[in-house]
């Protein structure tokens, strides 16, 4: 779908910009069809899909929720960065996660402080990053 | 009252006014000195660390505070992206006119503004210029082997190489092709200066323009290239025997919309790297900053560092002059704009129209 | 020449220079250790300090020291947590991380450092030997030759796809598409930027690497709710790793040579030297069925090459003042500030500085390896720590790494997108390495093809350099097939 969408968009460009998208996109779509056919055949005959040597075995999880849990934490961290800023979100995230899954108060606080300290030293002290205003500040003012 | 008395009264009045105004200026300066003492000026830079704009900012950041009353600290904040658009948008929306925010931009910020688009959310004409550093116009190098073909329409075309086809010096060659009949074609898409330098050396391209005098001298030493002309108002020191482009055009220099279009394309180069404060910065603060810039330009150590980075043809312009120039290069009539589009299309160059 | 060499060495061996070099090594190692934050960020941090220094040798010792060793310490996160420590340590993940999971972290780390040491010494040696031919060497490469080189790189997609070549090719194509995002120089068109200036400069490679490789492994760790190492023992791996390098010395030297030759190509070398070496290893070594599952050779080859490439990237810098990559670009700024003029003078009147650089590259590597070796055992124990201490810290560092490229929150959004993509690919067994290669090489290939055609028409196909490189390319692609037939081990049979 992505490939098809990309090809569609690139049709409006001059040739020198679009040719690589068109050529590779066409090849990519053809290959996808080949792969789809191959996978369907394998599924029908009960074979697993090709053994890989370049990849770790496909992730097996015991429960559906295993991945959803960590994804929720990551999404929450991402949201927190926008809401309260990186400087606050980083130590908060580390502290909360460690505490939730078994760390003691001291360990969680120490790790949170480490993360926060690092972010502050690197971005504020050394790089003078122009932080965007956190949403919470914008909402209050 | 006799005349003498009147004159002496006038004189006293004048002197008193003068002294009072000095006191005022002094008071403002004192006020400003107190203001900047212990403070830090943030200089936002529209490029990555290590780029030309960044280098200019760092040199300025090192020396400017010496001449600002109160000797503030300075810190550099890099905000690359979008050819300067991201930093420009940010500065326009967020910078406070309190004398502690400055912005180091380059001519691409002006070029992007002129080209327009919905993503342009700034107006560089509203910023207040502190000063600018121009590295000197480009010197157009041509390979000796290719030069004879330039004037011979029947020969294989001479290849001009560029990164994105919209560099300001490219305008000179386009106008030369159009009005002097030069036998040239344009190949662009090279990722950057390094690749172009290499391409000129290997003979992949025959003509290239750069303002880096040291680089040009290296090429001259190798003996395979010569300089066609320089893209300058007046001949650069060190290149006094190289004609300017206008001299080369001579009588064939066009007028009207054509020349206006040429100036619009080639103009921003004259401004090059410029430092601005946000709109609304108080006049007294601007006066201090501009004065500091002028004094900094005379500093021997600054001159040495600037020469290290920019070659020997760099020069500074005052804030007032820079302000005027910014306005000039961002204004173009529709007729000239149309001409520009047409001539770029003719030579296979990007039209510089609004992007998608 | 000999006098300049001795003068260069003497200037570096003073207590002050050695101290600055050690400081550089320490800073470079610390930064290399942190995922995502690479040499360029460090050098950018150092720039303001360096610009006020007066002594050129001090600048060389410090900055070249930092640059030389970033790739050594970046093996730590690649091996221990499967997060690329820098652009040059991506290939190391493929075999390094599986070794860590098996409890062989110490072996992987010591092998990587030993390989780095060899690479870091062979590199400068080759650089030294090439001094007389530097300029003609750099001048031999034009757009057509660069095109064939990028094609060679992309041909490795097949190698890196293991037994899923179709999926690998599709991943590679997707990588090329990702690389097309941004302003296209040759047409002035924004491609896939949807009017957002943020996307004009394209998507940074490190962002893709962090998302595709780093976060999915973190998710795996968090889902399993265990430590990195499935077995809690370091074993006697430390010595084993060192011996591994000597047992595979010829491979190590070959990989170093690849590193330096790829590293010297301006703009191309930094991110692909390790992949070239890795792919070459698979193509030329015997018994490669364990590659991707924890074969120590899969750690040795990329690590040797990515240290050697640093020396390579100085070739265009010394010959013409052309930076070989981002970190050399920053170093050039610093050099200019202290009056070292990069360019032809580096090979004539400033030859002593050139030698000081070469000596620093070698000596700094030795110091760095010694430094890293000392920390192998304590740091390898991180693999036994419970997941709730590791996971949040890794994620924070990954986000930091993503943010540090452009200081833009949009980068974090993209990180999330690539993390999701990497997760899905990993889950369904799609090879991820080809995608990265596609990102690195895709648009370069397009660009050089375009420039070659516009400039030369079809004549570029007949250039001697192009013909030679094509022959080498075909040889490298066909050799493993020929070897497979001779050795009786058929890759085709394996795939079925």
What's the architecture of the largest domain in chain B, going by CATH? Answer: 3-Layer(aba) Sandwich
If strands are numbered along the chain, what order do they take across the biggest sheet of chain B? Answer: 2-1-3-10-4-11
Classify the beta-strand content of chain C into a percent band: under 5%
What's the number of extended β-strand segments of chain C? 2
Overview of this structure, please?
The complex is a heterotrimer of chains A (141), B (356) and C (496). Chain A contains 6 helices and no strands. Chain A has helices at 2-10, 15-45, 65-84, 86-100, 105-126, 135-140. Chain A starts with a helix and ends with a helix. Chain B has 15 helices and 11 strands. In chain B, the strands form 3 sheets. In chain B, strands 2-1-3-10-4-11 form a 6-stranded mixed sheet, with helices on both faces. In chain B, helix 6 (170-179) links the parallel strand 6 (158-162) and strand 7. In chain B, helix 10 packs across helix 15 (334-346). The N and C termini of chain B lie far apart (77 Å). Mean pLDDT of chain B is 84; it is low at 10-31. By secondary structure, chain C is mostly helical. Chain C has one domain (2-485). Chain C has helices at residues 2-12, 15-33, 39-50, 56-73, 75-81, 91-101, 105-130, 134-139, 143-160, 165-180, 205-224, 237-247, 249-263, 269-284, 297-320, 326-337, 351-380, 387-406, 409-427, 433-456, 464-487, 491-495; strands spanning 182-183, 190-191. A two-stranded antiparallel sheet of chain C has the order 1-2. In chain C, a hairpin with a 6-residue loop joins strand 1 (182-183) and strand 2. In chain C, helix 9 crosses helix 10 and helix 9 packs across helix 14. Chain C is globular. Residues 487-496 of chain C have low confidence and may be disordered. The chains are: A mainly alpha (141), B alpha/beta (356), C mainly alpha (496). Chains in contact: A-B, A-C, B-C. At the A-C interface, helix 1, helix 2, helix 3, helix 4 and helix 5 of A face helix 3, helix 6, helix 10, helix 11 and helix 18 of C.
């Amino acid at each position: 779908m992505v490939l098809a969408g990309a090809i569609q968009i690139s049709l409006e460009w001059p040739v020198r910009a679009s040719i690589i998208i068109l050529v590779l996109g066409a090849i990519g779509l053809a290959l996808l069809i080949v792969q789809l056919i191959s996978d369907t055949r394998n599924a029908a005959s009960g074979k697993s899909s090709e053994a890989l040597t370049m990849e770790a075995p496909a992730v097996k999880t015991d429960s559906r929720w295993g991945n959803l849990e960590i994804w929720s934490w990551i999404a929450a961290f991402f949201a927190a960065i926008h809401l309260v800023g990186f400087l606050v979100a980083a130590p908060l995230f580390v502290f909360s996660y460690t505490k939730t899954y078994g760390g003691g108060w001291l360990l969680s606080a120490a790790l949170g402080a480490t993360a926060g300290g690092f972010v502050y030293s690197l971005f504020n002290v050394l790089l003078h990053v122009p932080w965007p205003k956190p949403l919470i500040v914008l909402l209050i003012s | 009252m006799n005349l003498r008395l009147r004159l002496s009264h006038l004189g006293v009045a004048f002197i008193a006014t003068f002294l009072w105004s000095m006191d005022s200026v002094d008071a403002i300066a004192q006020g400003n000195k107190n203001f900047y003492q212990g403070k830090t000026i943030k200089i936002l830079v529209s490029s990555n660390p290590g780029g030309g704009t960044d280098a200019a900012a760092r040199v300025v950041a090192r020396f400017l505070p010496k001449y600002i009353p109160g000797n503030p600290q300075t810190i550099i904040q890099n905000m690359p992206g979008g050819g300067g658009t991201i930093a420009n948008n940010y500065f326009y929306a967020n910078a406070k006119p309190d004398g502690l925010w400055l912005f180091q931009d380059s001519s691409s910020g002006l070029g992007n503004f002129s080209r327009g688009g919905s993503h342009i959310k700034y107006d560089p004409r509203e910023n207040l210029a502190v000063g600018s550093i121009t590295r000197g116009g480009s010197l157009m190098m041509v390979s000796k082997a290719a030069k004879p073909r330039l004037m011979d329409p029947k020969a294989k075309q001479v290849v001009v190489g560029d990164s994105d086809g919209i560099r300001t010096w490219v305008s000179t060659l386009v106008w030369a092709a159009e009005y002097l009949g030069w036998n040239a074609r344009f190949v662009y898409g090279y990722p950057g200066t390094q690749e172009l330098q290499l391409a000129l050396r290997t003979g992949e391209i025959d003509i290239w323009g750069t303002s880096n005098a040291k680089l040009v001298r290296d090429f001259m030493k190798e003996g395979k290239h010569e300089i066609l002309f320089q893209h300058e108002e007046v001949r650069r020191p060190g290149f006094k025997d190289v004609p300017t482009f206008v001299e080369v055009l001579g009588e064939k220099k066009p007028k009207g919309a054509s020349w206006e279009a040429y100036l619009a394309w080639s103009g921003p180069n004259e401004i090059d790297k410029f430092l601005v404060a946000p709109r609304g910065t108080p006049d007294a603060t601007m006066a201090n900053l501009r004065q500091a810039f002028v004094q900094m330009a005379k500093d021997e150590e600054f001159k040495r560092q600037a020469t290290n980075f920019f070659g020997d043809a760099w020069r500074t312009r005052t804030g007032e002059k820079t302000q005027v120039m910014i306005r000039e290069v961002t204004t173009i009539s529709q007729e000239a704009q149309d001409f520009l589009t047409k001539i770029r299309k003719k030579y296979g160059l990007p039209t510089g129209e609004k992007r998608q | 020449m000999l006098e300049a060499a001795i003068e260069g060495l003497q200037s570096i061996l003073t207590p002050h220079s050695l101290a600055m070099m050690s400081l550089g090594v320490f800073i470079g190692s610390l930064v290399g250790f942190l995922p995502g934050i690479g040499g360029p960020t460090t050098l950018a941090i150092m720039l303001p300090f360096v610009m006020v220094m007066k002594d050129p040798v001090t600048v060389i010792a410090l900055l070249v020291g930092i640059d030389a060793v970033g790739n050594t310490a970046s093996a730590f996160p690649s091996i221990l947590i499967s997060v690329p420590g820098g652009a040059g340590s991506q290939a190391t993940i493929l075999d390094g991380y599986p070794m860590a999971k098996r409890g062989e972290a110490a072996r992987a780390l010591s092998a990587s450092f030993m390989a780095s040491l060899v690479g870091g010494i062979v590199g400068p040696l080759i650089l030294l030997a090439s001094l007389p031919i530097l300029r003609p060497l750099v001048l031999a490469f034009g757009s057509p030759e660069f095109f064939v080189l990028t094609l060679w790189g992309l041909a490795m997609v097949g190698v890196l796809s293991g037994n899923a070549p179709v999926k690998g090719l599709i991943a590679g194509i997707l990588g090329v598409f990702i690389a097309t995002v941004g302003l296209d120089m040759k047409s002035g068109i924004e491609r896939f930027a949807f009017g957002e200036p943020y996307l004009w400069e394209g998507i940074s490679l490190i962002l893709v690497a962090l998302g595709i490789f780093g976060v999915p492994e973190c998710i795996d760790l968090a889902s399993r709710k265990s430590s990195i190492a499935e077995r809690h023992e370091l074993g006697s791996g430390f010595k084993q790793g060192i011996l591994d390098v000597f047992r595979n010395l010829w491979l190590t030297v070959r990989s170093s040579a690849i590193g330096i030759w790829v590293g010297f190509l301006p703009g191309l070398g930094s991110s692909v030297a390790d992949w070239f070496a890795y792919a070459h290893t698979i193509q030329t070594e015997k018994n490669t069925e364990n590659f991707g599952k924890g074969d120590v050779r899969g750690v040795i080859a990329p690590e040797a090459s990515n240290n050697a490439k640093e020396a390579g990237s100085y070739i265009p810098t010394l010959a013409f003042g052309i930076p070989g990559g981002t970190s050399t670009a920053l170093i050039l700024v610093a050099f200019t500030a202290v009056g070292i003029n990069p360019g032809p003078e580096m090979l004539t009147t400033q030859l002593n500085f050139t030698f000081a650089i070469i000596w620093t590259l070698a000596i700094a590597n030795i110091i760095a390896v010694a430094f890293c070796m000392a920390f192998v055992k304590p740091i390898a124990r991180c693999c036994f720590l419970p997941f709730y201490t590791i996971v949040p810290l890794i994620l924070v560092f990954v986000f930091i790494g993503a943010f540090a490229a452009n200081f833009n929150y949009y980068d974090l959004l993209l990180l999330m997108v690539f993390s999701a993509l990497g997760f899905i690919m990993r889950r369904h067994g799609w090879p991820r390495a080809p995608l990265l290669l596609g990102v690195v090489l895709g648009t370069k290939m397009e660009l050089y093809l375009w420039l070659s055609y516009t400039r030369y028409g079809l004549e570029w196909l007949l250039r001697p350099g192009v013909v030679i490189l094509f022959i080498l390319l075909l040889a490298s692609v066909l050799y493993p097939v020929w070897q497979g037939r001779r050795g009786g081990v058929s890759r085709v049979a394996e795939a079925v």
